[in-house]
C-alpha cells in the first residue's frame, strides 16, 4: 500500500526537540505555582472606580513594545503544514528547520520591503512532491505575512535532484499564480494547510 | 351471528373491535359457555373456504387471537395437543395465514409446555412446508415465524439437538430457510437464534454453509430510517452478527480469510467492523484454532499500525494483536512462541533504523503485546532487549539512542501496568537489562547536552518507570535514580530550550509514590541543604521551594515535608531572613495543605494540623503591634488558618473561636491594627461556621468593619479587603430577619449610603452589602429593593458607579459554600432578571451622555453570567452589545472585551440570532482590531470573533464582506503583538477559505 510513496518510512523528529517559543522564554518569566495560591491581591474586588491604567495594564506589557516578526514566528507558521504523503508535519519531518529560515531587512532605508527566505529539505532527494511542498509554504506565507514581506522559497542546495527546476517554478510569480488556478493542486495545498493553526 | 362471523365482518374495518370479539370468545370458553369443539366447528366453512385465501387467513388469525387471550388451564392437555395437530395439519396443505398459525402455536406453547415430539414436529412441519421464509411477502408474517422458531430454540435445546443429530439433512434446510431475509427486526432474531446451533451443536459438517448464511450480511451497511419506531441501530445488528461469526471455531477457515480480505477495503467503517470482528473471533475461538492463523493475522494487522490510516484502526489492531497473545498466554507455550517469533524478528529489524515512523510503531506493538500477560512480557523482553541494547551501545547517534529508549520505555510501561493488575509480576527478563538501562539513562541525564530535550525526557520517563516496576531495580539502584532526579530538580537552572525541570519535578513526585522512603531519606535532606536558613536578598530559592512543596502530593511523605517547612520558617523568622523568603516558605506550606495529601480522618483534614501548624502562626500575629504587620504575610497565614479550620466540626471551631475572641475584639477597637489585620481576619471569619460565632460579637465586628470601610485611609488594597469582609458578614453571619435593622445600626443601610452626597467609599460599601445579600438569596425583597436603588443612581452618577456593577457577580473565593456561606442556587438568574431588562430599556431611552453608564453596568453584569442564563434574552441584548463595541475610552477596554466574549459564544451557539446584524457586527469587529486604541487582548478577541463569522454564518451573508475583511486584515498581520498576529492569520485564513469554497461550487 505504500509502494506509491516516495519515502514510506521517514525519520521523525520528536516534538520536544523542535524549536518553540515557549521553550526559549526564560523560565523565570513564567508564573510560579504559588502565584495562583494567594493572588497578590484579588484585582476583581478592587474598587474598579479607580481606573489605574498604570497598574492594570502594566503586567500585560505595554502595547508600545513591538514584538518583531522573527524566524521562530515564520517557523511556527509553516512547521505545522502537513506533508502530502504522511499525516506528519513538515517540522517533525525536518523538511523545514528554523536555521533554514532567514529574514533579510530592507536593503535601503527608503525601502520597506523585507525578504523571508525559506530553504526546504525534501525527505529524499528524489521526492516528487517537492514542488507541491514548496508551493504550500509559499501560499501559506503569502497569506499570513503582511505585504511588506517578500517570500522566497527555495530547495536547499544539494538535497534534491530537481532543485533548479523547482526553484525556477517557485520563483516565477506567474507560474505560482497559474498553479493556484489548478483545482486539483489547490485541493492538495488546502489539505496540507488544513492542519495549520 | 356467530363470533367468527362477527370477527370476519370487523377484521378489515376495525382491528380493535375484531380483537374484542376474539377476547369475548376466549371469555366464553373460559366460562364454559362455549365448547372448544363448537368453536372449531364454527370455523369450518371459513377456514376451508376454497375460493378466498384471505378469509382462510383471517379465520386462522381469529383462532390465534382467541388462543392468545386465553388464561392458562382452560384447555386440557388433550385439547391443546389436538389444536396443535389441527394447526400443523392445516399448514401442510395451505400456507395462508401462516403468521397467524405461528402466533397460535406460540400462544398454545404459552398455555402448557410441549414434549420433545411435539417440538420436533412443529419445527419440522415449518421447515418442510414453508421453506424458504422469503416466499412470504409480509414482514409481520415472517416475524411471527422467526419468533416461533426462536422460542423453540430458546426453550427446547435438547429436543432440537436430537433432531439435528438424528437427521443430517435437517440442518441444510434449516440454514437455507432464512436465506434472503432483509428486514432488520427479523434479522435481529435470526442472528440470535442461529447462535444456539452455532455454539451448542456439532455443526462441523455444515460449518461453511452456516457461516456463509450469516457472513453474507457482512459488513452491515444498514441505516435506520428517520424516526424509526423500532429503534434498531446498525450497531445492534453488527453486534449480533459479530457474535455469530465468533460463535464456533469451525468457522475459522472461512472467517479469517474473508475478514482479512475485507480489511483491504477502502471504507474505514468496513475496516473498523473487520477489526472488531477479528477481536471477537480471537476471544471466541479455541486457542488451537487461533494458533493456525496467528501469524497470518500478524502479517495483516501490522500494516494498520506501521502505516496508520486512522488512529482508531491502529488502536483496534493493537488490541487484536494483544488478544491473540493473551489467548496463548493462558495455555501452551508452543503457540505463543510461534506467534511471537516473527513479531520479534520484525520488530528487531525496525529498531535498526530508529527513530522512524516504523520504530515508533514497534514500540506500540511491543507494548500492546507485553501488556497482555506476564508470560508474553517475559518473552518479548528476552527477544527484544538484547538486540535493543546492543544497538544502543553500538551507536553514537543521540537521536537513534532516543528512538531506542522510546521503545524500551514502551516495554517497561507494560510491566508497570501488569504489576498494577497483579502485583509480583515476574520481572526477571527485565531485571537482566535494568542495570544497563539505568546506567544509560543516568548518563543521558547527567552528561548529554541539555539541548537534547527528547533524549533526556525519554531517559527521565524511563527512569521513573523503572523505579515504579517492582523488583526491577535493587535498593542501591533505586537510590541512584532518586539522586539523579533530585539533582536535576535542584541544580539544573538551565534557561530556554532544554529546560526540563518541570518534568523532573513530576518525575520525582511519581518516584515518591513508588519508593517514598528513599525519597524521604535522600531527596528531602538534599532539598534542606539548598534551602538556606537566612539567604541573602537576591538569591532565588523560589524554584527549589516550589519543587519541594510539590512533593507533598505524596501522602506517605506529606508529614515530613510539612514539618520541615514549618521548622525552616521558624528558623528563617528567628534569624530575620528576607520577608520575601519567609513568605515563600509560608506559601509552600499553604500549597502543601491545599494541593498536597495531608492525613485525613473521616475525610476531613486532621484537626491536629491546626493545632500544630496554624496556632503558632496565629499566636505570633496576636503578639505583634500594627506597625510590624505585613499585609501579604497576613494574607497567607489567614489562608493557612482558613484551609485547616474550615472543615472542622462546630465543637473544635468554638474552642478556637473563644480562644481568639478577646485579642481579636480588642484589636478591632484599634483602627490602625484592625486595618492592618484585615487580610487575616477576612480569611479567619471565612473559615468559621455561622453557628460558632455569637450574634452580638458579630454585630460589633460588622460595625468595626463598616467604620473602616467608610472612614479608613484610601489604601485601595486594604479597602477591598474590608469590603469583601462586609460581604462575608452580611452573607453568612447576620440574621436575615433583622438584616435591615442591623445594617442601619452599623451605618451601612444601602438607602442611606446612596443618599444624595454619596462618597466613593459609601458606594463601595453599598455594592459590597448588596453583593452579600444577592448571593445569599434569603432576604429577597430587601436585596431587590437595594439592587434597584443601585440601578437608579446610574442615571445621575458617573461611570465610576457603573464600573462597580462588575463587582456584584465577580467570583470571590471567600463567598463560597466551602466557607459555609449561603449561596443560592439561582442567584445569577435572579440578578439577571432584576437588572438586565431594566438596563436594556434604559439604553434605548437614555440620553446620549449617560448611555455609556448603562452599557458599562450591563456588561459588568453579563461578564460573569454563564451563557445559558443569557441565552433567552440574546435578541434584545444584541443592540446594546453592539453599542458597547463603540465605546472608545481607554478605561472601557475591559467592557469591550467582555462584550466580545459574548459575541464569541453567540457566534458559536446561536449564529442565526446575529445573522441579521452581520453588517454592523463585521464593521465593529474590524474597528476593534485596530491598535493602539484597543488593547492587545481586545484586538485578539475581536479577531477570534471575526474568524467565526465565515464558519458560522451563511455564505451569502458573509461573502459580500470578504474583500473588505481580507484587505483590512492585512494590517493586523503586521500588528505589534505576536499573539494578535497569530489570531489575524487564523482569521484571514478563515475568510480566504470562503473564496476557495466558492470556486468549488462553480
From TrEMBL, chain B:
Gene3D superfamilies: Leucine-rich Repeat Variant. It comes from the Eukaryota. GO terms for biological process: DNA repair; iron-sulfur cluster assembly; protein maturation. Pfam families: MMS19_C, MMS19_N. Keywords: DNA damage, DNA repair, Nucleus, Repeat. Residues 40-307 form the MMS19 N-terminal domain. PANTHER family: DNA REPAIR/TRANSCRIPTION PROTEIN MET18/MMS19, MMS19 NUCLEOTIDE EXCISION REPAIR PROTEIN HOMOLOG. Belongs to the MET18/MMS19 family. Key component of the cytosolic iron-sulfur protein assembly (CIA) complex, a multiprotein complex that mediates the incorporation of iron-sulfur cluster into apoproteins specifically involved in DNA metabolism and genomic integrity. In the CIA complex, MMS19 acts as an adapter between early-acting CIA components and a subset of cellular target iron-sulfur proteins. This is MMS19 nucleotide excision repair protein. It comes from Oleoguttula mirabilis.
Amino acid at each position: 500500500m505504500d509502494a506509491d510513496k516516495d519515502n514510506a518510512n521517514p525519520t521523525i523528529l520528536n516534538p520536544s526537540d523542535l524549536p518553540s517559543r515557549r521553550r526559549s522564554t526564560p523560565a523565570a518569566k513564567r508564573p510560579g505555582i504559588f502565584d495562583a495560591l494567594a493572588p497578590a491581591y484579588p484585582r476583581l474586588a478592587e474598587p474598579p472606580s479607580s481606573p489605574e491604567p498604570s497598574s492594570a495594564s502594566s503586567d500585560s506589557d505595554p502595547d508600545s513594545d513591538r514584538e518583531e516578526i522573527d524566524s521562530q514566528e515564520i517557523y511556527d507558521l509553516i512547521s505545522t503544514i502537513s506533508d502530502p504523503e504522511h499525516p506528519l508535519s513538515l517540522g517533525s519531518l525536518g523538511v523545514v528547520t528554523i536555521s533554514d529560515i532567514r529574514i533579510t531587512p530592507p536593503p535601503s532605508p527608503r525601502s520597506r520591503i523585507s525578504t523571508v527566505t525559506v530553504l526546504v529539505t525534501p525527505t529524499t532527494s528524489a521526492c516528487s512532491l517537492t514542488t507541491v511542498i514548496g508551493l504550500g509554504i509559499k501560499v501559506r506565507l503569502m497569506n499570513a505575512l503582511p505585504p511588506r514581506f517578500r517570500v522566497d522559497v527555495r530547495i536547499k542546495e544539494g538535497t534534491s535532484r530537481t532543485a533548479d527546476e523547482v526553484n525556477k517554478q517557485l520563483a516565477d510569480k506567474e507560474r505560482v499564480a497559474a498553479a493556484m488556478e489548478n483545482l486539483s493542486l489547490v485541493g492538495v495545498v488546502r489539505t496540507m494547510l488544513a492542519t495549520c493553526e | 351471528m356467530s363470533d367468527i362471523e362477527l370477527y370476519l365482518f370487523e377484521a378489515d374495518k376495525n382491528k380493535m373491535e375484531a380483537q374484542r370479539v376474539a377476547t369475548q370468545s376466549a371469555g366464553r370458553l373460559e366460562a364454559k359457555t362455549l365448547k372448544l369443539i363448537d368453536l372449531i366447528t364454527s370455523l369450518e366453512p371459513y377456514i376451508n373456504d376454497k375460493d378466498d385465501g384471505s378469509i382462510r387467513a383471517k379465520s386462522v388469525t381469529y383462532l390465534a387471537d382467541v388462543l392468545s387471550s386465553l388464561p392458562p388451564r382452560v384447555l386440557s392437555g388433550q385439547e391443546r395437543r389436538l389444536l396443535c395437530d389441527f394447526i400443523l395439519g392445516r399448514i401442510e396443505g395451505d400456507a395462508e395465514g401462516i403468521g397467524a398459525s405461528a402466533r397460535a402455536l406460540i400462544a398454545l406453547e404459552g398455555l402448557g409446555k410441549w414434549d420433545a415430539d411435539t417440538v420436533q414436529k412443529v419445527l419440522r412441519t415449518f421447515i418442510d412446508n414453508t421453506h424458504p421464509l422469503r416466499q412470504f411477502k409480509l414482514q409481520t408474517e415472517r416475524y411471527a415465524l422467526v419468533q416461533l422458531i426462536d422460542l423453540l430454540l430458546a426453550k427446547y435445546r435438547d429436543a432440537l439437538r436430537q433432531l439435528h443429530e438424528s437427521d443430517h439433512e435437517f440442518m441444510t434446510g434449516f440454514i437455507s430457510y432464512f436465506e434472503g431475509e432483509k428486514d432488520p427486526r427479523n434479522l435481529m432474531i435470526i442472528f440470535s437464534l442461529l447462535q444456539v446451533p452455532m455454539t451448542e451443536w456439532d455443526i462441523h459438517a455444515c460449518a461453511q454453509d452456516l457461516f456463509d448464511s450469516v457472513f453474507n450480511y457482512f459488513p452491515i451497511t444498514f441505516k435506520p430510517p428517520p424516526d424509526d419506531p423500532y429503534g434498531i441501530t446498525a450497531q445492534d445488528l453488527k453486534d449480533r452478527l459479530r457474535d455469530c461469526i465468533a460463535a464456533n471455531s469451525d468457522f475459522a477457515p472461512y472467517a479469517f480469510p474473508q475478514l482479512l480480505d475485507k480489511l483491504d477495503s477502502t471504507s474505514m467503517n468496513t475496516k473498523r467492523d473487520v477489526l472488531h470482528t477479528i477481536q471477537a473471533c480471537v476471544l471466541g475461538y479455541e486457542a488451537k484454532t487461533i494458533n493456525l492463523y496467528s501469524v497470518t493475522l500478524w502479517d495483516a494487522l501490522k500494516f494498520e499500525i506501521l502505516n496508520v490510516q486512522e488512529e482508531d484502526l491502529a488502536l483496534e489492531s493493537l488490541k487484536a494483536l494483544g488478544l491473540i497473545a493473551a489467548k496463548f498466554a493462558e495455555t501452551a507455550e508452543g503457540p505463543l512462541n510461534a506467534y511471537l517469533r516473527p513479531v520479534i524478528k520484525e520488530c528487531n529489524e525496525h529498531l535498526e533504523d530508529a527513530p522512524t515512523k516504523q520504530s515508533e510503531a514497534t514500540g506500540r506493538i511491543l507494548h500492546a503485546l507485553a501488556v497482555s500477560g506476564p508470560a508474553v512480557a517475559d518473552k518479548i523482553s528476552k527477544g527484544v532487549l538484547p538486540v535493543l541494547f546492543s544497538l544502543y551501545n553500538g551507536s553514537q547517534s543521540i537521536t537513534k539512542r532516543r528512538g531506542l529508549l522510546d521503545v524500551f520505555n514502551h516495554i517497561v510501561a507494560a510491566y508497570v501496568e501488569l504489576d498494577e493488575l497483579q502485583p509480583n509480576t515476574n520481572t526477571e527478563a527485565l531485571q537482566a537489562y535494568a542495570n544497563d538501562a539505568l546506567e544509560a539513562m543516568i548518563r543521558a541525564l547527567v552528561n548529554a547536552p541539555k539541548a537534547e530535550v527528547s533524549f533526556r525526557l525519554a531517559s527521565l520517563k524511563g527512569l521513573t518507570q523503572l523505579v515504579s516496576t517492582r523488583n526491577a531495580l535493587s535498593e542501591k539502584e533505586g537510590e541512584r535514580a532518586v539522586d539523579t532526579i533530585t539533582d536535576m530538580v535542584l541544580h539544573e537552572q538551565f534557561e530556554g530550550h532544554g529546560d526540563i525541570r518541570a518534568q523532573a519535578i513530576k518525575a520525582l513526585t511519581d518516584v515518591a509514590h513508588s519508593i517514598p522512603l528513599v525519597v524521604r531519606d535522600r531527596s528531602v535532606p538534599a532539598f534542606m541543604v539548598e534551602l538556606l536558613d537566612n539567604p541573602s536578598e537576591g538569591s532565588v530559592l523560589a524554584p527549589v521551594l516550589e519543587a519541594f512543596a510539590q512533593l507533598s502530593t505524596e501522602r506517605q511523605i506529606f508529614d515530613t515535608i510539612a514539618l520541615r517547612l514549618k521548622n525552616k520558617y521558624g528558623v528563617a523568622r528567628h534569624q530575620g531572613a528576607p520577608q520575601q523568603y519567609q513568605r515563600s516558605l509560608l506559601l509552600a506550606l499553604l500549597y502543601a495543605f491545599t494541593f498536597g495529601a495531608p492525613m485525613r480522618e473521616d475525610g476531613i483534614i486532621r484537626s491536629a494540623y491546626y493545632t500544630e501548624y496554624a496556632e503558632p502562626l496565629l499566636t505570633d500575629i496576636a503578639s505583634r503591634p500594627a506597625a510590624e504587620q505585613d499585609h501579604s504575610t497576613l494574607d497567607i497565614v489567614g489562608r493557612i488558618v482558613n484551609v485547616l479550620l474550615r472543615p472542622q466540626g462546630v465543637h473544635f471551631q468554638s474552642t478556637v473561636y473563644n480562644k481568639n475572641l478577646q485579642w481579636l475584639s480588642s484589636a478591632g477597637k484599634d483602627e490602625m491594627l484592625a486595618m492592618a489585620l484585615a487580610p487575616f481576619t477576612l480569611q479567619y471569619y471565612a473559615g468559621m461556621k455561622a453557628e460558632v460565632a455569637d450574634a452580638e460579637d458579630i454585630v460589633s465586628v460588622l460595625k468595626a468593619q463598616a467604620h473602616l470601610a467608610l472612614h479608613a485611609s484610601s489604601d485601595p488594597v486594604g479597602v477591598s479587603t474590608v469590603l469583601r469582609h462586609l460581604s462575608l458578614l452580611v452573607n453568612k453571619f447576620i440574621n436575615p430577619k433583622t438584616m435591615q435593622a442591623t445594617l442601619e445600626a452599623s451605618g451601612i443601610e444601602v438607602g442611606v449610603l446612596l443618599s444624595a452626597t454619596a462618597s466613593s467609599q459609601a458606594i463601595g460599601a453599598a455594592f459590597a452589602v448588596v453583593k452579600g445579600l444577592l448571593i445569599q438569596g434569603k432576604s429577597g425583597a430587601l436585596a431587590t429593593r437595594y439592587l434597584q436603588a443601585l440601578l437608579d443612581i446610574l442615571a445621575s452618577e458617573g461611570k465610576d458607579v457603573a464600573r462597580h456593577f462588575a463587582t456584584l457577580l465577580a467570583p470571590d473565593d471567600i463567598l463560597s459554600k466551602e466557607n459555609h456561606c449561603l449561596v443560592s442556587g439561582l442567584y445569577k438568574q435572579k440578578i439577571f432578571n432584576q437588572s438586565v431588562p431594566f438596563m436594556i430599556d434604559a439604553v434605548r431611552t437614555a440620553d446620549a451622555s449617560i448611555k455609556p453608564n448603562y452599557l458599562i453596568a450591563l456588561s459588568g453584569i453579563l461578564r460573569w453570567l454563564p451563557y445559558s442564563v443569557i441565552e433567552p434574552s440574546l435578541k434584545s441584548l444584541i443592540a446594546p452589545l453592539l453599542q458597547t463595541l463603540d465605546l472608545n475610552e481607554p478605561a472601557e477596554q475591559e467592557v469591550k472585551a467582555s462584550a466580545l466574549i459574548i459575541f464569541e459564544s453567540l457566534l458559536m451557539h446561536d449564529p442565526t440570532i446575529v445573522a441579521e446584524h452581520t453588517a454592523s457586527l463585521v464593521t465593529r469587529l474590524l474597528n476593534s482590531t485596530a491598535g493602539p486604541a484597543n488593547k492587545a487582548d481586545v484586538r485578539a478577541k475581536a479577531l477570534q470573533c471575526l474568524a467565526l463569522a465565515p464558519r458560522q454564518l451563511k455564505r451569502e451573508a458573509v461573502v459580500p464582506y470578504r474583500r473588505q475583511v481580507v484587505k483590512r486584515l492585512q494590517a493586523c498581520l503586521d500588528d505589534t503583538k505576536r499573539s494578535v498576529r497569530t489570531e489575524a492569520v487564523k482569521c484571514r485564513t478563515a475568510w480566504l477559505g470562503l473564496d476557495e469554497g466558492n470556486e468549488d461550487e462553480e
